[in-house]
Amino acid sequence: MEKGHDSSSSMAASELYTKFARVWIPDAEEVWKSAELTKNYKHGDKLLHLTLEDGTNIEYNLDEKTKNLPHLRNPDILVGENDLTALSYLHEPAVLHNLKVRFTDSKLIYTYCGIVLVAINPYENLPIYGSDIINAYSGQNMGDMDPHIFAVAEEAYKQMARDERNQSIIVSGESGAGKTVSAKYAMRYFATVSGAATEANVEEKVLASNPIMEAIGNAKTTRNDNSSRFGKYIEIGFDKRYRIIGANMRTYLLEKSRVVFQADEERNYHIFYQLCASSHLPEFKNLKLGGADDFHCTNQGGSPVIDGVDDSKEMSTTRNAFSLLGINEQNQMGLFQVLAAILHLGNVEIKDRDSDSSAIPPNNRHLQVFCELMGVTYQDMSHWLCHKKLKTAQETYIKPIPRMQASNARDALAKHIYAKVFSWIVDHVNQSLRASVKQHSFIGVLDIYGFETFEVNSFEQFCINYANEKLQQQFNMHVFKLEQEEYLKEQIPWTLIDFYDNQPCINLIEAKMGVLDLLDEECKMPKGSDDSWAQKLYNTHLKTCTLFEKPRMSNKAFIIQHFADKVEYQCEGFLEKNKDTVNEEQINVLKASKLDLLVELFQDEEKATSPTGTTTGGRTRLSVKPKEVRPGASSKEHKKTVGCQFRNSLAMLMETLNATTPHYVRCIKPNDLKFPFTFDPKRAVQQLRACGVLETIRISAAGFPSRWTYQEFFSRYRVLMKQKDVLSDRRLTCRNVLEKLVQDQDKYQFGKTKIFFRAGQVAYLEKLRADKLRQACVRIQKTIRCWLVRKKYLRKKHAAMTIQRYTRGHQARCLVKFMRRTRAAIVIQKFQRMYVQRKLYRQKQAAALVMQTILRAYMARQKYQGLLRNHKAVFIQKHVRGWLARQRYKRSLRAIVYLQCCIRRMKAKKELKKLKIEARSVEHFKKLNVGMENKIMQLQRKIDEQTKDNRLISERLNGLETSHALESEKLKIEVSKLKGIEEEAKNNANRVTSLLEELERLRKDLTTTQKEKKTIEDWATKYRDEMEQMVAELKEENGLLKTEKNDLNRMIKEQSQQMTEKMARALAEETHQLESDLNEERSRYQNLLTEHLRLEERYDDLKEEITLSVNVPKAGHRRTDSTHSSNGSECTYNSEFAESEESSRHGEDVTRGMDTSLTLKLQKRVTELEQEKSSLRNELENREEQFQRARARDDEEHRKSRGAELEYESLKRQELDSENKKLKHDLTAMRQSLLGNAGAEAGAPGSAPYKVLVDQLNTLCEELEVRKEEVLILRSQLVSQKEAMQHKDEKETMTEPLHYAEDVHNMKDSGAITQAYLSLKETNRSPTADFHRLNEDGELWLVYEGLKETNRLLEGQMQQQRRSYDNDVEVLRGELQSLKEENNRQQQLLAQNLQLPPEARIEASLQHEITRLTNENLEMLRTEDPTEYRTAKLNILRRMVDLMEQLEKQDKTIRKLKKQLKVFSKKIGEMGAGQGESVSPGQMVEETVRPVNIPRREKDFQGMLEYKQEDELKLVKNLILELKPRGVAVNLIPGLPAYILFMCLRHADYVNDDQKVRTLLTSTINSIKKILKKRGDDFETVSFWLSNTCRFLHCLKQYSGDESFMKHNTPKQNEHCLSNFDLAEYRQVLSDLAIQIYQQLIKCMENILQPMIVSGMLEHETIQGVSGVKPTGLRKRTSSIADEGTYTLESILRQLSAFHSTMCQHGTDPELIKQVVKQQFYIIGAVTLNNLLLRKDMCSWSKGMQIRYNVSQLEEWLRDKSLMMCGAKETLEPLIQAAQLLQVKKKTDEDAEAICSLCNCLSTAQIVKVLNLYTPVNEFEERVSVAFIRTIQTRLRDRCETPQLLMDTKVIYPVTFPFNPSSLALESIQIPGSLNLGFLTRV
After folding, report:
1. What are 1638-1677's pLDDT values in tens digits?
2. DSSP label at 288?
3. Which of 486, 824, 1384, 1773 is 20 to 30 Å apart from 1067, CA to CA?
């Protein structure tokens, strides 16, 4: 590690260690602690004044010897970088702090350190290993994405493919650091990305080996619940196409001692606990197992259960993995039987017999079970467990052994058996994973133990640390080599870097006379011991090697100085573990076992190179071949020690690694308590030192660790340059600036493409940049503050002037106010004095007036009394005289009237006699009859008028008489009263005195009464007040009740509205659910189509392989590697097609037919699904229609309820008018009949006709009056109904009880109803609006309501009659329409027959006539007898079939004759027969018969194309296979191939050739599939055939004859409909083909857009100068692929425009273009967001603004193309919200609430990920605090969403093909000659 002066050597200490500079100081708890200088450091100071982060001030003393200053801290902008080498100050505290910030704050577990990936175990399951993450990292450069194990795996995979060199991934770390998991994920990545070369699922087998090896090789330790207790190196093999073909596994140093011993809180290997947990299964009953606590081998640790792990489920997983790898059930049970025997063997108890011998008690249950399971005898095993055999030169002895040795031998046997099982499993796993083809390359994954040091270190730790020394040496050399290559590449002067070389330590271990050599030598000694070996070590190395030490207090231990730390090893047990001896007789007993598997385990005992199986058992050595074993050397080879084996295996491993390109993963364990995301600095530093990470940092820091490209340096430090320094040459500009900024030339170097800086230089430049920006900020702040202060001063000045102005105005107003008040006081005094004088005057005037008033009143009263008496006397005289005069007048009047009556009676009698005489004469009767009606009416009116006048006169006379009598009586009474008064006046004069007394008494009573009255009035007032108060309270209560009522009404309204809204929401949700289900079903169906297409392609490939294997192709047409280009492949294909056309035509037809039939069968299920889909859609539409109909019905009923009554009344009025007219007509007719019967007898008054006439006249008059009254009633009812409707509209609701209607129905008498109407009329005339209270019981209202109900019933009957009438009309119209259609059809047939040749015309007319007669006969029979009808129908059908067969035979004969005629015409043409060349044979024949038809056939085309059956292949070849969209097809009509194919299909349908139709459609579909398979990566080809396939599908629909598709056709197009075949099934096949082409188009576009998206949307700076460039590390320099140029946003837009213009040019449907654009934008948004979520350097404020600008450009493109409504913008919503999230404030709770409401399209995981990745680009930005992120997580906790982090970029929206008919007429289409389709004939 570098020292302080090294880190600050770039400039003087006084420039760096200034006030506010931050440094790192050592700390006992946190290892390193941050502090800040409070005082500038000066050279020679012995201490530094510092302030800790908690505010504590300390003084830091410098070392007096070294004077080293503390490490400087990196700027905050560099903290949290992806690569540790990007840090400016490279030292231990900087590395530790960067890892801690990333791990604890950002929750990032991966970090680069140069070429090393540092992985920290989070102790928590993270969602960063899914298939979406794998797809995101696939194909990406290692430095472009955030650090990840997948990035390392991708780099290894690409380097293997690019450099054709084997790769290795070395995963190391201590137990519990996560090595196994990292290796597992690396293998999962390879298995997912590459796939398998065969169908054997090799990648699944590779992954399935993990649970097996974890079960038999992993165990729980104090540091890890799933610790690998062995090392393994897995080689994953690939073929030439870099697909997985197999794998091979090597294992190293299995920890066998764990089988018989476990420390506290530890477990044995997982497989034992899985067996115990599954002991209840039937197949495991014979193993006689129990719980893990029952066995000594599994209960020593006291922790048999792991939290969160179900051993029974793990057992099921292990067994499934065994089965997948080909280990059958028998072998599995054999393995479990051996493992169970090991458990029972551990429970065998050995007891002392004496001090030198031991014995096993007889009938030991566990030993019996062991022997039973292993298939050995109990006696032999019990004997050899307690004895051993000693061999000498002459004899063999069997010696008993003591109990301790016997127990050790028992444990050694158990360990040896387990090692054999382990080796056997590894061997069979390798056999299962062995490649069946030749391996081209491999990637090795090394999962090996890291450096270990414990309190007691033994032989295992020694071997582990030895292996780590070798790996560290290889790592150092590789790092050194990379650094050297980088310097040489950039042409920088190379200076030797001093780095730690651990070769001396390796020599100490493995060299001659090294530790291992001395250990092997001591093992060979007969009496060798650990103590003697220790003494040899001391004597050999203690004085000669500085790395070897002896402990002070021990003679049985030694210390070795490893690269990571000093380790003290205890010598006890080294020799025993190195020998690893097992009793040979025990092995012989096992070899004699009846268990076949056990015999197989030990059958190679003599040949095995590893008797213990710990290192090489079960592996296949691929890199180094084992040496051949000489005869007789087996015993020597058998005695090879464990250390020797391990050394050889390690040497082979190093040889393999040196032959590959290594990639390093260093796993770090953050804490020992397994707490999630808890970082222990002490433990982390220990592991960083041990794994070589700090060594990498030291090597990098010794040279030029910081590297910038010239463009990055210019972009970052442009602020330090002046305008004159900026040149066009970036390199020269950077050189000039650096020479000014850094004076020491040794601190940087200029390479070819980069600038190299020594450690600390970037921090210095960042300091200069920050100072410059700070100065700029200060200047800006100064200017702004000046402006703000000036603005404040101007505001104050203006305020002061305003205050002064208002103050002066106030003073002026006060002066004016004083002057006004003075003047007002004078005026008040004046008027006051005037008022006093006027008041005195008025008092005097009032007194005088009172006196005058009293006097004048007395005089006036006297005068009034006199006048009153005179007036009364005159009044009495007037009435008396009037009464006398009236009496005389009445007597005279009665006499005169009497005389008049007598005279008039006499004259009337005379007149009556005359009239009687005249009435007897006929002439008088005739005169009388003329105008009788008018006279009767006039007489009636006169009688009525006279009656009314008489009634009025009589009433008036009666009134006069009554009044006269009353008046006379009154006058008499008044006279008598006057007389009495006169007498009384005389008497009253005498009683005046008494009356005065009485008056006085009455006055007193009056006073008393007044008092009582006042009391009563007071009480009445009080009572009135109380009543008013009570009334007010009642009113208030009434108001409250009204308010409550209104509230209830409002609540009812709200509830009804809520219910309506709820129903609407439910309907909308149901609609949305149905739509989503429909989309899911459509997506599922289209995915099935994709899978079907893949299977078809696979089937075609296999068929081609079989064809190639059977038929050896010609040498000239054999496909080689050079023919894989596009042109070559086309030529090859064409030549092959031309050669094999004739030979394979029949086979291809059969295959095509089979394929099409198979496709049709496969589509049955699809059709059912479509029917279900359509049923769901119909159900949705029906529900919507029901809802709409319900609403319309309500509106219609409401409207009808208002208009029905008015309509009924108008109808009633019309009916009455018509009846009135009818009555008048009857009257006229009767008069005429009477006049016709002239005669005296007939016209006599007493005759019968006369009586009839009079009666009829009377009834007619009465009826007329009734009708008039009814008319008036109806008119009044109309008015009342209008008012009632208005009243009904004003009220909220008005019910109509049913019993009202019943009452009206009971009123059968029309007179009752009329009377009700009359009363209703009178009621309606009243001004009262309350119709319910027309009378006491409301009968009139009931009648009215009932009458309305009657009107409704009548209206319903009338409407029913109207509907029946309408139905009849519709039936008649339908018959008329059918007749018209029949007429048109007859005309069309006639026209067609006229166009046909004579023979065909006769046949067509005969066929038509037969059909017509058949239909007529069937109709006749149908009406007579159904049975005869069915029989006749069958006979006619049979006859028709016979006739059709005869017609077909005749057609074939005619075709043959025509062909012969054509041949003859060709021969004649060759002989020069005039103009016969231009005339077809058919025309020549017709010319002789009917020459008039020739012009018509040439000009009138029917939109059909005729071709020969043998030309079908030529048609398909020229129109599909060889048609190039970019060449010939550009100038064609959009969809021309589809039109041509359909026109050919129409002709085949026209001639009724089903075979031709079938072969044409099958050939078309197969040819389109073939051309897409050949040119599927060409966008124009795919787009062209997608457009034509859709057009062909639309044509099949448009001309299918289905009415739903014929709505937009012209009459001519309707004539072109298919007539003979229903091609609905082929339409479904074409629809499926279109879906497949669409998906291929999307994939093609995705392949084109994919490389552009990240560069154009994220990396390229569309807005220059916004995004800042931060320092980059070593990984940014590593490029896995060659630079292909930088894409910009303009590139994406140009590509989108090219896609759009190509599709438009090809005539793609607009709706389909919208779906394509939506899919394009989804891909852009998903890929951009996924990369944003995986790139920490992109999550900044400036990048958010950049993304939003790019999105706005995409929206502008949509707007220009008129595609804003296609749904593409909505697919970008997650990306837009992510960009907004980068830009919003992220501090307070309000910000958190705003973020939660803003980001509704992002998942919680995505939001938290963006916040964790948010990185400031400048020092002025702030990081997101951990507390804020937790707040966001808390608020989003209740969200129901998937935990997926990345968007699925492989999603393809379901596509639909809306029907789009064409307006192009088929007969107008011309075929260009460039298509080479001259063999087609227009018809």
Report:
1. 999 999 999 899 889 988 888 887 776 555 555 555 544 4
2. T
3. 1773
* Residue pair 718/710 in contact by the 8 Å Cβ criterion: no
- Whole-angstrom distance between the N-terminal and C-terminal Cα of the chain? 92
Query: CA 1652, 1658, 1662, 1664 torsion: positive or negative?
Result: negative
Choose among 1557, 1527, 1521, 1515: nearest CA to 1881: 1515
Among candidate residues 561, 568, 575, the one with its CA nearest the CA of residue 531: 575
Q: Which residue has the higher pLDDT, 470 or 1375?
A: 470
The residue ranges of DSSP E strands in 612-738, in sequence order, are 661-668, 706-709
Query: Which residue has better confidence, 794 or 1411?
Result: 794
Q: How far apart are CA 945 and CA 922, in angstroms?
A: 31
Q: Lowest mean pLDDT: which of 834-838, 1106-1110, 1291-1295, 1405-1409?
A: 1291-1295
Instruction: Name residue, tokens 């059809």.
Output: 1385
Residue 270 to residue 676: CA distance in whole angstroms: 24
Share of the chain above pLDDT 70, in %: 74
Residue 1145 CA: distances (Å) to CA of 1140, 1563, 1571, 1574: 8, 11, 18, 20
pLDDT band at 4 (very low <50, low <70, confident <90, very high): very low
For 381-427, write each residue's pLDDT tens digit.
888 889 888 877 677 788 888 888 888 888 889 999 999 999 999 99
pLDDT score at 714: 81
Q: How far, in whole angstroms, is CA 432 from its chain's centroid?
A: 43
How many Cα neighbours within 13 Å face the side chain of 85? Answer: 34
| DSSP secondary structure string for all residues of 796-831 | HHHHHHHHHHHHHHHHHHHHHHHHHHHHHHHHHHHH
Encoded amino acid at 1630, one letter: L
Kindly give, in sequence order, each residue whose CB lies less than 8 Å from that of residue 206, ignoring residues fewer than 6 positions away: 187, 190, 191, 234, 236, 244, 247, 433
Asked if residues 238 and 191 have their Cβ atoms less than 8 Å apart, the reply is no
Contacts of 1341 (CB under 8 A, 6+ apart): 1331, 1332, 1334
Amino acid at 442: F
Among 1141, 1170, 1022, 1098, CA closest to 1515: 1141
Q: Are strands 244-252 and 661-668 parallel, antiparallel or unpaired?
A: unpaired
CA nearest to 43, candidates 81, 8, 3, 86:
8
- HSE-CB at 1705 with a 13 A cutoff on CA atoms is 18
- Tokens (6 digits) for 3: 């020292």
β-strand partners of 1506? 1881
DSSP string, 1197-1221: HHHHHHHHHHHHHHHHHHHHHHHHH
Q: 1568: which 2 tokens? A: 């389109």
